[in-house]
Amino acid sequence: MTTQVPAAPQAQKPLILAVDDEASNLQLLRQILQDHYRLLFAKDAARALELARQERPNLVLMDVMMPGMTGHEACAILKSDPRTASIPVIFVTALTDTDDELRGFDAGGVDYITKPVSPPIVRARVRTHLSLVRMEELKESRLEIVQRLGLAAEYKDNETGMHVIRMSHYSRLLGIAAGMSEAQADDLLHAAPMHDVGKIGIPDRILQKPGPLDPDEWTIMKSHATIGADIIGDHPHGMLALARNIALSHHEKWDGSGYPNGLAGEDIPIEGRICAIADVFDALTSERPYKKAWPVQEAVDLLVKQRGVQFDPRLVDLFVAQLPAICAIKEKWAEVQSELKVGDTKSGEMKAGEEKAGEAKAPVAAQTAAMPVAQAA
């Protein structure tokens, strides 16, 4: 007995825009695709651009040789418009020359189907590129959710979300200086805001305690690194894998005295080593109701003092070498306290959970003659 699977409601089917100046070609595409997709048709590029902006189709099948404007030209216009730039364009053409294909890819096309078309090939190419778009959308949605959790954790432990923005830009700059490609550094930029996402799982009584934590509380506080890694989850590669490494390793120290795993030296992932420097620098140089901002040079002096102890010495040197660009980022994303304060009642209040058993974002009285290392916990 064969079970019939109900067809998806028409409104749920992907919308495809087919563009060709030959009515017979449009009719053929209709026959090939109408059972599985909603369809729009245009007989010239100008009308196609109009429909694309109005209807936002999921995919465009574009003829190349059309009167008035070629498909390559129309594709370039689509890709230059933020409203339509993400729509994949597949060229359907009788042109088979390699140079023509290269022009299409340069214009922003994702694939070529050669006329006369084969129905199975058309369906397969359309299905493949719609699946790729869907996968990218799911990836971006998941990433946005996790990043928002990171921002929520920041609001729980800070007055604003500007810290994660600044430290992520510092991290990107340092990543490039350390030899990362632009793409790798961009991944770092987007992953870094999740470094403290695990604070979502720390009780407020600990996170907002207005004084040093006792040993049991400090043990719980340190668990935010592993909680963050668990929230982000295991991923074999990509930005979320990077984010997990950062959450888990940005409190490790070069000399092996950090947490949660006591990693040392280059056993600490480079993304964790980078974010550790960016995190501490921004924490020190940012004003909060419970502390004044450290001067930039004093913060740099502390980083230099801790090179080879808390921080990767090579990365500290690279950070210092990039200081003018770092300060430009700091200025760009400067916090305007008058806009961020809810009221004057918060002034003078101790920041929740900042003085944490000798590891604090703000300078605190040392129990020994040495200054305690300021650390964004």
From TrEMBL:
The modification 4-aspartylphosphate is found at D63. One of its GO terms (biological process) is phosphorelay signal transduction system. Residues 15-130 form the Response regulatory domain. InterPro entries: CheY-like_superfamily, Cyclic_di-GMP/3'3'-cGAMP_PDE, HD/PDEase_dom, HD_GYP_dom, Sig_transdc_resp-reg_receiver. Residues 360-377 have a biased composition (Low complexity). Keywords: Phosphoprotein. Residues 344-359 have a biased composition (Basic and acidic residues). Residues 138-335 form the HD-GYP domain. It comes from the Bacteria. Residues 344-377 are annotated as: Disordered. Pfam families: HD_5, Response_reg. GO terms for molecular function: phosphoric diester hydrolase activity. This is Putative two-component system response regulator. It comes from Pseudoduganella lurida. The lineage of its organism: Bacteria, Pseudomonadati, Pseudomonadota, Betaproteobacteria, Burkholderiales.
